[in-house]
Amino acid sequence: PYGRNDPAAALGIARPTRAPGRYTLAWDGRDDRGRAMAPGTYVLRAEAAREHGGHELLAVPFALGAGAAVVERRGERELGRIVLRNAPP
Question: What pTM value is reported for the model?
Fold first, then answer.
């Protein structure tokens, strides 16, 4: 199985509701088969949705393979500050 056909991969990315707070996500620059991703522009998408309330989707583009960088975005309603630190291995 691969991608959405692989339940373990989907659970590793999409998670059930979490309490408000700070969270950290680490990615090693590899796909879910362990292969290094090609250099290029990628997009981190963060989403918050309430069962009876707001919804917000934030897209944070970043360059993989272009050296170290820090990209920040701030949500307007449901999401706070997103900080993406891109550090080559």
Answer: 0.72
b/e sequence 26-56, b meaning 16+ C-beta within 10 Å: eeeeeeeeeeeeeeeebebebebeeeeeeee
Backbone φ, ψ for residue 88 (5° rounding): -60, 150
Task: Give the model confidence (pLDDT) of 55-72 as tens digits.
Answer: 999 999 999 888 888 999
Using alpha carbons, list the distances in angstroms from residue 69 to 13, 14, 64, 88. Answer: 23, 25, 10, 9
pLDDT at 54: 87
The SS3 assignment for 10 reads: helix
**What torsion, rounded to 10 degrees, do the Cα atoms 13, 19, 20, 23 define?**
-40
Are the CB atoms for 36 and 10 separated by under 8 Å?
no
Task: Specify the pLDDT at position 76.
Answer: 92
Write down the domain spans for the chain. 21-86
